[in-house]
Amino acid sequence: MVKSKLPSTGTSIFTVMSALSNECGAINLAQGFPDFPVSEKLVERVHYYMKAGKNQYAPMPGTPELRNQIAEVVIDTYDRPTDPAEEITVFAGGTEALFATFTSLIHPGDEVIVFDPAYDSYDPVIRLAGAQPVHIRLNPPSFHIPWDEVRAKINSRTSAIVINTPHNPTGSIISADDLMNLEQVAEQNDLYIISDEVYERILFPGNTHHSVLRSETLRKRAVAIFSFGKTFHATGWKIGYAVACPEITTELRKVHQFVTFTVNTPIQLAMADHMKNPENYLHLGQFFHRKQKLFSSALDGSIFEPLDCFGTYFQMVRLRETLDISDHEFAEKMTREDGVAAIPVSAFYEDGYNAGLLRFCFAKGEETLLKAAEILQKVTI
Ligand code: PMP
Ligand code: GLN
Q1: Ligand 1 atom at minimum distance from 238 CA
Q2: CATH of span 13-31+283-376
Q3: What gap in Å lies between CA 192 and CA 248, rounded to an integer?
């Protein structure tokens, strides 16, 4: 008999909804991935390095070329001097970086604060580390962090707070004031801050990304996690990185070397070249904002009320009428009967809180978004 270490964990909602969408031939606005191509130039650089024979193991923490380039981008973007040798590690996507962070920093018996709705990998990995996730609910429509509740939940076992900004699934972002609160509680209680910033570049115009990397106070206690999958429309390439002080980085690498050991060489070298030109990533916010505006206005008059969002490629909507079935059942029915797949947001709440919310991914061509919206206009409850 297998004694599960994760008895209550099933298959991720993204996998479930994508499979159903494929089965039904629906428009898949559920799982988050773009339907437009990776830059031709970037693909050419990958080919170039493959043909040039760069096909053997890269150094465990990542190629020096890529880590040096990341250090340059970090200083340009966040004004944070970062040592590529000791503070940057390349991972097989944000997912592996999160796994290595939780596994190396969190001890059995610890408590870790997680804000719901939360990305699905945090809770199970915290549990695998033998720790207890402590979920705090963020409420629609603003999804602001309730700092009084955070302070009240912190005790001597609390070892970390997980934040995600820009936030999946809500599209909310943390403010300068949130960052100040984070600094205060982290300092007062000696906590790690695990900051999932994979959507750092998908921030709509007029907003600021308050990365933990901007904070001198958090320098010795924060891990910032990024993903090239989001920034370069290449979710299938599974490559990302983490920035943390040398003491933390040493621990992250101890786990990384026994999970994947290293990340594929030609893509690392190609990414290093591609990132040299900021034009390749600086306009992502405007690009996605146009899609967000197109999609949300095409929902006008439908049963789906778009909520404000400031970044990511997800649009949260609230149903204008009350459901008498669960949001899961509604999303499933909509996929089967109407032909558009979405994610039921209760999947992101540990307690299954159902506020009648759905998440749509708008990282799609305009034609697809308009076609989906035309169908959604006719959906009834
Ligand atoms: N964090 C969040 C909030 C995400 O949405 C995702 C994936 N979409 C990840 C982490 C994982 O990133 P990756 O695909 O690079 O593993
Ligand atoms: N991050 C993607 C999303 O939120 C999915 C990634 C996955 O399927 N694991 O949709």
Answers
A1: 15
A2: 3.90.1150.10
A3: 10
